[in-house]
Amino acid sequence: MSTLQNDVEELQQRYDEGLTADEVGEEELAVLEEFLQALEAGDVRAAEKRDGEWEANEWVKQGILLNFGLRDIETHSHGGVDYHDVLPLRDTSDLPERGTRNTPDGTVVRRGAYVGSDAIMMSPSFVNIGAYVGDGTLVDSCDTVGSAAQIGDDVKLGANTLIGGVLEPVEAAPVVVEDGVALGAGCRVTSGFVVGENSVVGENTLLTPRIPVYDLVEEEILFGHLPPERRAFTRFVESSVGDHDLFEGGAYKPAVVATDVEDETLEATQREDALRGN
Predict the structure, then answer these.
(1) Which end of the chain is more exposed for a tag (fewer CB within 10 A), N or C?
(2) In this structure, which topology does domain 2-74 adopt according to CATH?
(3) What is the pTM of this model?
């Protein structure tokens, strides 16, 4: 991939110097196309774990942004409906041979997204450019997997879950949901938050670096990540403006409480496995 990286970085330099979509020719388009194919094959990723920490691959995020900056808007058709974008949707004909299925009427996978083997995408759901969805992962109805988000293997995204996208700045790590995580219905994970492997998160929980995680296992307050092997849920703690005249009875702010994963918290995921035939 070193040659592709060099090509993307060179194209980025030319773009910074004023290259426009009107000036793009076959050579530049070939680089952009090769880059998208590498993303869709899982050969390159927007972020990787190094020495225990998730780090953005800046050149990959640059390549994603170049596909917006160096292409013109065109009219495409999907399901008999015209739409107008710089990229068509991803060709999903490779999914069945890898045991992955997507249900009709609303599963949308954008170009430059990777979807692993034995995965399930329920409609309606949306997987954006640069996202990585691992093997055996369930993307349930009304889910959004944002730009560059990294979803691990055997993850269960409950219905109406939002995984935020992080493209800029290019050095910022995207949202990461590690292997074996189960997110309850209505969860939202944003702004580069990392959900540690094998954690179970209660429904309607908001995970974002601005909301503290009270880890009762290690007895510490964390920001930006949930450690592995945790059961997490939302509680409300007293706000610093609790005694303000406008807040009769006190004001409260959201927090996330994290405890050990208990056996009973896995019952729902075990039922899900049964439904999937595992």
Answers:
(1) C
(2) 1.10.166
(3) 0.91
